[in-house]
Amino acid sequence: MNLHNDIGVILNDNLEEHARILRDAYQASIVSLDQFQDWVAEALREAGGETGTFEVAGSELSQQPAFLRTYSNAAGLESGPPNVYSHINPEAADGILFFAHADKSPESFEFAKDIPQLIETGDRFCGPGIADDVAGTAAMISALKIYKSLNSSSPQQILIASILGKQGGVFGSYGLMKRFGPMSSAVYLHPAESGGGLEELKVASNGLIEFFIDLEGKPPDSTEVHQAIFSRSAENAIDKAFLVNSALQEWARAQSDIYHHEAVQAMAGQSFAVSLGLLETGSETEVFEIPLSCKMAGTICFPPGANLQKVREDFEARLVRITESDSWLRHGHWQLEYGDRIAESSEAAVESPFIQQSSDIVESVTGTRPRYFYGHSMSDIR
After folding, report:
1. Is the distance from CB of 374 to CB of 203 less than 8 angstroms?
2. Superfamily of domain 3-191 in the CATH hierarchy
3. Cis (ω within 30 of 0) for the bond into 133?
4. pTM above 0.70?
5. Distances (CA, A) of 189 to 43, 65, 201, 253, 274
6. Element (H, E) at 317
7. Which of 56, 92, 218, 305 is 20 to 30 A from 49 in CA distance terms?
8. Residue ranges per domain, the chain?
9. Is 103 helix (H, G, I), strand (E, B) or coil?
10. Contact 49, 161 (CB under 8 A)
């Protein structure tokens, strides 16, 4: 049998079994994370995989950049919940990883109390958390069952994992690769946020840097309550925020040219971006006062090919230049802090045999060649 050509037939012959696995996965997922992972482990064992679990200790987090703002005392953290994995041919030096994430948003468990069974409409399955990422986990188990039923053997290692994907994967995929990586290829089984299903393959993950900048102002030389007329003797923290943001946008436009990525540019209209998402300052009831502090926060998004460390260094250097150009800020009336969402960029070459074969298989199943998506950021695909 030519598996490459007949994979669609194999899937269609097993549709009811896939649906059963998805229903069972959903039932296990709505109770608790621990119960879901127990179900995954048992399903992988039944499928014939060599199964185990691991937990990521807080002390491990200091070796990577993400979520160190929240977990500033990482060494004192308890280990995260269990991750589940299954090995085929584990002694091989290289291999492929298939993974999905087991954790869901807390709201999913609340909503699921009113939806204890999957809602099935035609070929659609609906339920809290089903697309994030119960369906990916179920698909992973189905794929293993089909593979084992074919009695095929692989010279490579096959690693299958149900990991903790929230918090940027620091308690899941990071620990997985520390223990079992690197792998030459990986498939992250997660439905597209666009709803496009198998019509889209995410072949890249843009890098991300979350930042917080605190700006300090100066009151006017007056004790008057209504301060606007004396604003020339003040340093308005909002004005400083506008100054910094404007200069950062100019920097981002220049970086977009330096790190030009044709596919990202075609999809988003730019290759590099700084986006301000928070501006906290002033008082709604006392708008007549000059604000003396302002917190601005945002993210830098950079394409594959740009390096996280280099972008951070350039960002810090540009901030110094911006603040040095201002007669008030140059005296140290500002502070930079990085947030939790810090991630390197990555990309799979679409012309590679792995991506082309994946595309061929999707086309054999759906009848449509998938599009390549370049708009995702900070994904476990990295």
Report:
1. yes
2. Zn peptidases (3.40.630.10)
3. yes
4. yes
5. 17, 24, 10, 34, 29
6. helix 308-324
7. 56
8. 3-191, 207-343
9. coil
10. no
